[in-house]
Specification:
The protein has 355 residues and is mainly alpha-helical. It is built from 14 helices and 2 strands; from the N terminus they run H-H-H-H-H-H-H-H-H-H-H-E-E-H-H-H. Strands 1-2 form a two-stranded antiparallel ribbon. It comes from Alkalispirochaeta sphaeroplastigenens.
């Protein structure tokens, strides 16, 4: 999962693009208020929201794992049909709030699907995974670490901002009291799309818990300063927390001495199929994801407004998984990687804050 700032940037870029070129989508569907924009950024986190659900019970964590493998196209089609129902129930209102909320969330969700599929192969190849290419205990953490490096460097490239200046939390704080009907629609879409969720009587509550845990996680990791890193390093050395704590924190920008965006256009390979090679940069992959997102959101809007078909949207979105962008369940056994020197950078950053 590219980390949360990269996903937010893509959703916001899609909104800006639609404002300049509506692509025959009625403006009434666009996320044009702070509330709707926050829902687009929330949707852009996709099933990662469920993966952050560690504390509150009942948990939705397993749905995060499942949805990284399958089901996203069907869920998005169901959300469009729910939006259509809300419009048919209130024909005089034009674009009822519920439709607009689902549209904003779905725009973000579609962007999550495409960014994951296009960027994950690069991240896997340049980070490695458990036991590959070595058995270092921190190797599994390098995936998340690289994703946060990408966040920092992509944000600087696209917005000339630091993580602190971007203020992610201000962008993803939807008005909770307005999300009751929204949560019901998302729960129904998941139940209609995933067989394993069909009899889950607590799904709506799980979704709420995942949202609250995610907001807590984002708040905990928001804009860390030097004191944060000093304390984290001290707690690690005291054995209070694991050595992997740094992998989920955005590292200090001034200490990032490697090219996490592949701006040098070095050749990399798909970890599932080394015959598939590319020298694409992360910004190039980002732009490809935006193109695909806007194409599929146009189909989503047509379905929501009663002018399109669910089959066409599902076919366009496809059922490739989000872990490595292939249509194979279970996912392939990754066989090829050439990691960046992430482990050495990881420890260089940590020791910079030793006292």
């Amino acid at each position: 999962m590219p980390s949360h700032i990269s996903h937010a940037l893509l959703a916001e870029s899609c909104i800006t693009s639609l404002e300049g070129d509506p692509r025959n989508i009625p403006p009434g569907v666009f996320p044009d208020t702070p509330h709707l924009r926050s829902l687009a950024v929330l949707g852009a986190q996709g099933p990662d929201i469920f993966l952050h659900n560690h504390r509150r019970k009942p948990r939705a964590f397993r749905y995060g794992a499942i949805l990284h493998r399958k089901g996203n196209a069907r869920i998005l089609a169901h959300l469009a049909l729910s939006a259509r129902e809300s419009r048919e129930e209130a024909p005089r209102s034009g674009f009822p709030l519920h439709l607009r909320e689902l549209a904003a969330f779905s725009l973000g969700y579609i962007s999550h699907v495409w960014l994951d599929r296009l960027v994950h192969p690069f991240v896997n190849y340049r980070a490695g995974w458990r036991g590959v290419p070595d058995k270092h205990p921190d190797r599994p953490a390098m995936h998340a670490f690289l994703e946060r490096i990408i966040d920092v460097q992509l944000l600087r490239l696209l917005r000339n901002q630091s993580v602190q200046e971007y203020r992610f939390l201000d962008r993803i704080s939807p008005r909770r009291h307005q999300l009751v009907s929204f949560r019901k629609s998302v729960a129904r879409a998941i139940q209609d799309s995933l067989r394993s969720a069909g009899d889950d009587q607590e799904l709506e509550r799980r979704i709420a818990n995942a949202l609250y845990d995610s907001l807590s996680y984002y708040r905990f990791t928001e804009s860390p300063g030097a004191d944060y890193f000093v304390q984290g390093r001290a707690r690690e050395r005291a054995g209070i927390i694991t050595s992997r704590w740094l992998s989920v924190i955005h590292p200090p920008e001034e200490l990032l001495i490697l090219d996490g965006l592949n701006l040098d256009q070095l050749l990399w390979k798909h970890p599932c199929d080394p015959s598939r090679t590319s020298n694409a940069t992360v910004p190039t992959l980002f732009n490809r994801a935006m193109t695909r997102t806007l194409e599929d959101f146009s189909l989503w809007a047509a379905l929501a407004l009663g002018e399109g078909s669910a089959e066409k949207l599902i076919a366009s979105l496809g059922e490739e998984n989000l872990n490595d962008g292939i249509s194979c369940d279970p996912p392939c056994r990754k066989i090829h990687c050439e990691p960046l020197p992430l482990l050495s950078l990881y420890y260089q950053i940590k020791t910079a804050f030793d006292k």
